[in-house]
Amino acid sequence: MSSQPHIVLPWVVRRTRLPLLSLRCVGCPSESATTGEGRFRVNANGKLLDVWLLVRCVSCDRTSKLTVHERVPVRSLDPAELHGYRVNDPELVASRLLDPLLARRNRFTLDWTGAWRLDTPAAPLDGAWPVQVEVVFEDPVPVRPDRLIAQGLGLSRNEVLRRIKCDTPLRRTTSSGFAFVVMAGD
Ligand SMILES: [Zn+2]
């Protein structure tokens, strides 16, 4: 039997909604916030602009402002982008929220619990091993490869360690695409 995988399966990790934010509320003990439907606030001061993304505490509803742009010249912004801020364009809300720069600047992390799914093709895993799987991330969901593979193949974590050859460390959280090969069981 050839050791070259003869089947390549695509797996896709994608979000099902926007993740929550792990962000300490100043008004209550909660550490969870949401963008809700997604709203920006734009404030013009002469030729300078401030843009914030508004989020609210999931517990007490208090609103916080996350700095997107601070005192930037109006002309430095792409007019389409500025329009997106003014009309609360949902795609712009998502791309700003998922931008690691925003998280670093405003000191929050994203809470992806329950906000994503793994799509796998209904594949004929009929014992014709090995099988290669390529995992693509449509959204930057942090996953541990060993857990994702166990979930996707319905294997135990031990079986994953035994049967998987992966091009990235199995236990290191990643949001970048990777590939692995499933070897025969016994
Ligand atoms: Zn609160």
Quick recap of the structure?
Pfam families: DUF1062 (PF06353). With 186 residues, this protein is of the alpha+beta class.
Question: Characteristics of this structure?
Answer:
5-stranded mixed sheet; 186 residues; elongated; alpha+beta; 5-stranded antiparallel sheet
Biggest pleated-sheet summary:
5 strands, mixed
Regions with little confidence, pLDDT below 50 for 5+ residues: none
Shape: elongated
The structure class reads alpha+beta
For the termini, the CA-CA separation is 15 Å
Our count of domains comes out at 2
Give the helix level as a range of percent.
Answer: 10-25%
- C-alpha-based Rg, rounded: 21 Å
Q: Bin the strand percentage.
A: 35-45%
Give the strand order, joined by hyphens, for the main sheet. Answer: 7-1-8-10-9
Secondary-structure element order, N to C? EEEEEHHHEEEHHEE
Pfam families: DUF1062 (PF06353)
Protein name: DUF1062 domain-containing protein
Write the layout of secondary structure elements.
Blueprint: E1 7-15, E2 20-22, E3 32-45, E4 48-57, E5 63-73, H1 79-86, H2 90-97, H3 100-106, E6 109-111, E7 116-119, E8 131-137, H4 145-153, H5 157-163, E9 164-166, E10 178-182
Parallel strand pairs: 1-8
Antiparallel strand pairs: 1-7, 2-3, 2-6, 3-4, 4-5, 8-10, 9-10
Helix pairs in contact: 4-5
This protein binds zinc ion.
Zinc ion is lined by residues 25, 27-28, 30, 57, 59-60, 62.
Textual characterization of the structure:
The protein has 186 residues and is of the alpha+beta class. It folds into 2 domains: 78 residues, no CATH class; 92 residues, no CATH class. The protein has 5 helices and 10 strands. The strands form 2 sheets. The protein has a 5-stranded mixed sheet. The longest helix is centred in the C-terminal third of the chain and has 9 residues. The model has no long low-confidence stretch (mean pLDDT 93). The structure holds zinc ion (ZN). Zinc ion binds next to loops. This is DUF1062 domain-containing protein. Pfam families: DUF1062.
